[in-house]
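At this stage, I needed to go through a protein sequence along with its fold in token form, as given directly below:
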Amino acid sequence: MSVPAAAPPVVGFCFDPHTKHYTGMQPVLKGWCARLRWAGKVLHSDFFHTAAAQPVYLECADNYQDMRERFAARLPRFRPAVGLPAEAVVTCVIDRGIFSHEVFAKTLEAPDQHLITWEKNFRAGPWDPKQGSGQYTLERTRHDAQDQRVYRFEYLDQDWAKNPQMRQLIVRATHPQQHTVEVGLLTDDRQRAAPEILYLMFNRWTQENDFKVRHEVVRVIV
């Protein structure tokens, strides 16, 4: 699948690694396997998905490189493979496994990419609405048009104290059953509107353990 030539100058994709127990005969390196709850032969399947959850690119690897190293190697091959224009700026939404000050530094230096991820080891603190606050609502249509859920979000938009070059979004997300969690998001993208950043993250077709999000169709209610 290729991206049309008329694609916008800034495009968003989810980088989604899946690790499965490998049962073949090849000399595959061992790693942590959730299925076994122990170390064993594992195969990493690294997908790129569109923001609408359509898979467009896949590479497989063993445990020789960790996810950060694999992502750095995948991205240059991914861009031409899906027909992205040379001038396109790619925003990648990735889970907290990418979290690294070294990765953030390289992303800040790259003119053709942005990163959105969870803040690892985030701890909730004082909520100051003066620090660039906002709110929006998501309606999720699940298995049919009548099966809808409403999710409510409040957020603070500010510089990240640990690296002011990075942008931090502190989010209070409320489930339809009124369960609320507070999480932190990090990005180097200073131009994208905060609700769009939250949309890209919470619309991921897998996970997230913090909010129990599953693959559903999402639209923003303005």
In short: The first helix runs from residue 67 to 81. Residues 6-94 form one domain. The first strand starts at residue 10 and ends at 21.
